[in-house]
Amino acid sequence: MSLSHFVDVILPLPLYSSYTYSVPAEMEESVQVGSRVLVQFGKKKYYTGIVEALHTSQPTGYETKPLTALLDAEPILRYPQLNFWKWISDYYLCSPGEVYKAAVPTGLKPESETRVSLNPDYEADETSPFRMTETQALVLMTLQEHKRLTLEELEGHTSIRNIAKVIMPMLEAGILEIDERIAERYKPKRVSSISLSCERGDEGRLHECFETVKKSRQQEKALLTFLDLSGWLQPGQKPRLVTKQQLQSAAGVSPGVVKALVDKGVFIIEKKTVNRFAPEGDKEDEVRLPQLSEAQQKALKSLDEGFKNNTIQLLHGVTGSGKTEIYTHLMARAMAAGNQVLFLVPEISLTTQLSDRLRKIFGSRLLVYHSKFSDSERVDIWRRLLTTNEPLIVLGARSSVFLPFSHLGLVVVDEEHESSFKQYDPAPRYNARDAALMLARMHGAKSLLGSATPAVETYFKAKEGRYGLVTLKERYEGSQLPEVEIIDMKEMRKKKEVEGILSSPLRQRLVATMKDKRQAILFQNRRGFAPVVVCEQCGWTPKCAHCDVSMIYHKNLGMLRCHYCGYSTLLPQLCPACGLNGLKIFGYGTERITEEIREAFPDNEVARMDLDTTRNKDAYQTIIEDFAKHTTDILVGTQMVSKGLDFGDVATVGVLNADTLLNFPDFRSNERAFNMLEQVAGRAGRRKEKGVVMIQTVNPKHEVLTHVKNHDFDSYYRNEIEERRKYAYPPFTKIINIYIRNKNPMMADKAAVDLALALRKVFGERVLGPEKPYVSRVASYYIQSIMLKMEVGVNMKKVKEILRQIYASLANTVEMKSSMVHYDVDPS
Q1: Count of alpha carbons within 13 angstroms of residue 275, beta-carbon side
Q2: Rounded (to 5) percent helix, strand, coil in the chain
Q3: 199 exposed, middle or buried (CB, 10 Å; 0-12, 13-18, 19+)?
Q4: What's the average model confidence in pLDDT over 610-634?
Q5: What are phi and psi of 286, to 5 degrees?
Q6: Are 731 and 667 in contact (CB under 8 A)?
């Protein structure tokens, strides 16, 4: 390669341009585009950057700093990852650094971190004007106990928000001191590896080893087992790594037997670093594809024909129609052609159940990737893909689009309608479905979108011929769609047929289901114990100190918690406003529902599945496995239970309060409600016996509920598309929401008004707002929003350039300088 004196480096910061560094002579032959480099940024900070370009043009106006270190012998990116990052950055109006930060696991981005400690030379001076606050005294006591902490650790120990602002006066007074160190977060997996003390092919020495152990059957057994596990006697095959633990387990011997073989010079044990997801051996797993029904075979044939004319196909199959079985046949074909597959799902809970099903078919050629894995595990998956071209399937949530695929041949997006594919905070605010389609295009791969309730925009494109469309209208193995019953809760309450959260019909249905030894799912789209705490004496309700929302009561923690910023506090015993004992709890979250269902059905096992009970990946596995094995009878959950889970014995699904989904102030309200209700209904009766779905509501005549009752996607779509056409919403327009955040409400208002006026001069009536969003303060930031609604056909690339230019023209105003502005392109 040609030598370069300078490199442009992308840093994991919200910077819209890369920074140029000089290349030391000893690195010139090694550094490449995509290389990971450690660089100094500012006076003290060090970051891991990615080399974007190599050149010989020295920047003017400043002196470049040299690269501090080249961290790998080879680049950590493959083609076309940098192009993909650039597309996301341009399309979603964010910086390349924000894309890089989201894309690459933290373990591959060591950087300097600030640590705080007490200054040992500090002596208190009574004449000093500095007076310590209670908060600063807490910081002092914490550091006296823990000696040295990072800012994040100090914030965690003290629960002080904005800790940097609190400690700054203490630094200036000389009470505290700070230092920087490079934090390496990746922890490699180290194993005790066993090897023979002789070279492969040295038959004489191998014979000596057997002579050494012939008097001990256990030692001889361990030696034979090692030869078998390692493939040591198989010529032309690379020996497999055998760990001490593997050998002891396979041979059924104790650690003492292995130690004796080491002492006799037969085995050598050494510590080795291994990839947690390295393939075990050279043997390829046999693919065992499921048999397809006649309808599935017909759909698969239609997809094959469709791919000849259009690389993007939509498979619209009713719930329980067996779309996953069709996916597996297409994946097997892609892998047989030597390609890799990305199987994208909206929820981590889906990867849990799907991974079990897919591993039975594809074995070790399946990799799973999502945010519940530890950072070190994610690094190892990244490195596994980086160092192989073998055909693999990656099953994952939205972040898997950033992995370093080599030969990507097929992208499958299951439940493509799901809003969970959209990243909200922080940037990049990308839609993983749309990003995956672009990634497939860059690789020249085929894309398959699957859903029982396709997104309005997706179905419109399919109807217009921009995507292929294949329909699967019958359930797998002849099972029927569930019967849907709408329960009028106003009437039930008049008749006094409501006890707790359950109406009489739903309670009776649950009793019958439990009597028949079947299972039930209860859906409530709100976690926590109760959404409302009110003082009956004065009307006080607990509000978050940092957001304009009420706090949710979590009984098992005894805490009030904000679901927007995470702030929590103890539930007071007396009302803080009037001092009386009048606090009452109203409403139902999943925690309270679970408690009531356990009381009503004491002989049955009840489990809960929501964000609070699934904090780690093992929690998902346990809940889903217990329900699949029928260890659990009733599963209470939030939207997690509505997405693609497949349980064969669910006879009843209860939607406890459909009204929380309806009448939301958003143009996608009906779409979200129909999708979620139809999807959760689809969990019932997925095998031979027909299931029943009961939806409790105070608005039984709502059009969405009528469509769900009849499982009538076509009528729902016709109504929805006409509404969108009438009021100029997607797919007939493109929307960009612009959010302005400031800790000062007047500054936020002024910045938003100035920006809206500047936009209106260019875009006219296409600019709506500014206005306060539904929740107008989050994490102490006041928020204003502006909507830009552009007709289809407008050059959106030019529109985005103008947006950047208008922001740049206002960036130096006092209001805009203190504000944060971000864009939400194609809001979901």
Answers
A1: 16
A2: 40, 25, 40
A3: exposed
A4: 82
A5: -75, 130
A6: no
pLDDT at 126: 66
- The candidate with the shortest Cα–Cα distance to 652, out of 518, 533, 781, 776, is 518
pLDDT value for 146:
87
- pLDDT per residue over 581-605, tens digit each? 888 887 778 888 899 999 999 999 9
In this prediction, residues 757-779 reach a mean pLDDT of 94
Burial (0-12, 13-18, 19+ Cβ within 10 Å), 252: exposed
What is the band of 530 on the pLDDT scale with cuts at 50, 70, 90? low
653-679 tens-digit pLDDT: 999 999 888 877 788 999 999 999 999
CB contact at 8 A, 314 and 449: yes
Q: What are 193-246's pLDDT values in tens digits? A: 898 888 877 788 888 888 888 889 899 999 899 888 888 877 767 778 888 988
* Token reading at 742: 């400031």
Beta bridge partner(s), residue 469: 314
User: Apex CA 318: angle with CA 317 and CA 324, to 5°?
Assistant: 55
- Which amino acid type is present at position 677? L
Contact 284, 391 (CB under 8 A): no
Query: What is the chain's mean pLDDT, rounded?
Result: 90
In Å, what is the CA distance from 773 to each residue of 231, 738, 815?
Answer: 64, 11, 19
**Residue 48 in 3-state DSSP?**
strand
Calpha distance 268→431 (Å, rounded): 51
End-to-end CA distance of the chain: 45
Tokens of 270: 């050494």
Q: What is the dihedral of CA 272, 274, 278, 279, to 10 degrees?
A: 10
pLDDT value, residue 283? 52
Q: Is the peptide bond before 731 cis (omega within 30 degrees of 0)?
A: yes
pLDDT for 1 equals 40
> For 401-433, what is each residue's pLDDT tens digit?
999 999 999 999 999 999 999 998 899 999 999
For residue 675, which of 452, 349, 346 has the smallest C-alpha distance? 452
Helix H or strand E segment including 738: strand 733-742
* DSSP structure class, residue 173: T
CB 271 within 8 A of CB 217: no
Choose the weakest-confidence range: 73-77, 109-113, 496-500, 621-625.
Answer: 621-625
User: In the sheet where 36-41 sits, what is the strand order?
Assistant: 19-22, 6-10, 45-55, 36-41, 69-70
Segment 135-143 long-range contacts (CB within 8 Å, at least 24 positions apart)? 135/160, 135/166, 136/166, 136/167, 136/169, 136/170, 139/163, 139/166, 139/167, 139/170, 139/176, 140/170, 140/175, 143/116, 143/117, 143/118, 143/176
DSSP structure class, residue 231: T
Alpha-carbon gap, residue 546 to 557, rounded angstroms: 20
The alpha carbon of residue 783 and the mean position of all alpha carbons in its chain are separated, in whole angstroms, by 25
Q: Which amino acid is at 382?
A: W
Residue type, 627: F
Segment 232-251, tens digit of pLDDT: 877 767 778 888 988 999 88
Q: Give SS3 for 367.
A: strand
- Cβ count within 10 A of residue 288: 11
**Length of the chain as a residue count:** 828
Give the span between the Cα atoms of 22 and 9, in whole angstroms.
10
- For helices 96-103 and 81-91, the axis angle rounded to 10 degrees is 120
Q: Region 79-104: what's the mean pLDDT?
A: 97
Please tell me the predicted confidence (pLDDT) of residue 375.
87
Quote the tokens at residue 108. Answer: 């591959």
DSSP category for residue 545: S
What is the C-alpha to C-alpha distance for residues 675 and 601, in angstroms, rounded to an integer?
Answer: 30
